[in-house]
UniProtKB/TrEMBL annotation:
Gene that encodes it: gluQRS
Organism: Pseudomonas marvdashtae
Transmembrane residue ranges: none
UniProt GO molecular function: ATP binding; glutamate-tRNA ligase activity; zinc ion binding
InterPro entries attached to this UniProt entry: Glu-Q_tRNA(Asp)_Synthase (IPR022380), Glu/Gln-tRNA-synth (IPR000924), Glu/Gln-tRNA-synth_Ib_cat-dom (IPR020058), GluQ/Sye (IPR049940), Rossmann-like_a/b/a_fold (IPR014729)
Protein name: Glutamyl-Q tRNA(Asp) synthetase
Origin organism lineage: Bacteria, Pseudomonadati, Pseudomonadota, Gammaproteobacteria, Pseudomonadales
UniProt keyword terms in alphabetical order: Aminoacyl-tRNA synthetase, ATP-binding, Ligase, Metal-binding, Nucleotide-binding, Protein biosynthesis, Zinc
SUPFAM superfamilies linked: Nucleotidylyl transferase (SSF52374)
Length: 294
């Protein structure tokens, strides 16, 4: 990899960071540093109603107490609405996106794949969601850890929302525009986003944006198989647990920190990790039960 590597960590402030977020942050950080690249921080605050008060500050504090240093100023997606809207207007006027007035209830039987009811209805954009038309084609890419991933957009994703009916911009659109705008070359994130990637590839293709490399790390799961997160009461990353949790996150990522590091501080652990990072050691699995990690 070249010196032009740009990576990023892009937390959503719907809750605090937990061990699963630490694993994703650490992987993207070490991958960037090993490559001599930049590591950016982007707050994905697209959904104020779902934002936990104080979460943005808590995320920054946690990253700092765990020794992470990002390059440049943090970017907030809430400052980027104009850029998102411009692209939506363009896609709409080109007929690549359309307005949808289907209710949640109406769509219940379709299990997340939009059946195209409003596709050719010509609705006005007011009080409507905006959906992107997807082609009846398979998209695929080679993930650096998970290998080849394929998805037929029409059958497995369907026309997807890029702006919600309540006016909020959708993650799929914002992430693609911001990664391109920030020059991100390498996306390292949790495997829960693997099946979002083909939709993002389609958007990149449509908008003439470069395709980054992808690396999806295993999702850390709870005993019940769920993703760690606020709703399952996983504890926030405590400042006084930084060193042991960083060591544990390194092991979750298949890295082999020597026992001399048992007394190291967070900065020393990140420095060791940056020098010794080997992405080929990351377990090739979509999920990793937290209880299995030493
Ligand atoms: N904001 C997303 C999350 O917290 C991550 C987005 C991404 O890395 O593409 O799950």
């Amino acid at each position: 990899m070249t010196a032009s590597y740009i990576g990023r960590f892009a937390p959503t402030p719907s809750g605090h960071l937990h061990f699963g977020s630490l694993v994703a942050a650490l992987a993207s950080y070490l991958d960037a540093r090993k490559a001599g690249g930049r590591w950016l921080l982007r707050m994905e605050d697209l959904d104020p109603p779902r934002e936990e008060p104080g979460a943005q500050m808590a995320i920054l504090k946690a990253l700092e107490s765990y020794g992470f240093e990002w390059d440049g100023e943090m970017v907030r997606q809430s400052d980027r609405h104009e850029a998102y809207q411009q692209v939506i207007d363009r896609l709409f006027s080109q007929g690549l996106a359309y307005a949808c007035i289907c209710s949640r209830k109406q769509l219940e039987p379709y299990q997340g794949i939009y059946p195209g009811l409003c596709r050719n209805a010509g609705h006005d954009t007011e009080d409507a969601a905006i959906r992107l038309r997807v082609p009846e084609l398979e998209y695929h890419f080679i993930d650096r850890v998970q290998g080849e991933f394929r998805q037929h957009l029409g059958r497995e994703a369907g026309d997807f929302v890029i702006r919600r009916r309540d006016g909020l911009y959708a993650y799929q659109l914002a992430v693609v525009l911001d990664d391109a705008w920030q020059g991100v070359t390498d996306i390292v994130r949790g495997a829960d986003l693997l099946d979002s990637t083909p939709r993002q590839l389609y958007l990149q293709e449509l908008l003439g944006l470069p395709q980054p490399r992808y690396l999806h790390v295993p999702l850390i799961t709870q005993p019940d198989g769920h993703k760690l997160g606020k709703s399952y009461r996983s504890p926030p990353l405590a400042a006084d647990q930084a060193a042991p949790l960083l060591l544990r996150a390194l092991r979750a990522l298949g890295q082999q920190p020597p026992c001399e590091l048992d007394d190291a501080n967070p900065r020393e652990l990140l420095d060791w990790g940056s020098r010794h990072w080997d992405a080929t050691l990351i377990p090739r699995t979509l999920t990793l039960p937290e209880a299995q990690i030493r």
